[in-house]
Amino acid sequence: MFNHLKIGVRLGLGFGAVLLLLIATAVIGLVQAARIDANLNTITENRLLKERAVHTMELNQSAANRMMFRILLQQRLESDDLQRLQAIKTSSDAAYQSILDLKPSLELQSMLSKMHNAILQGRTHQQAAMAQIKLGNFGQAQADYLKVGLENSRAVRAQSERISQLLREQTDTLTAKSAADYRAARTLSIGLAVTAALLASLAAWLITRSITRPLSEAVSVAQ
Question: How many angstroms separate the CA atoms of 172 and 127, rounded?
Answer without folding.
Answer: 41
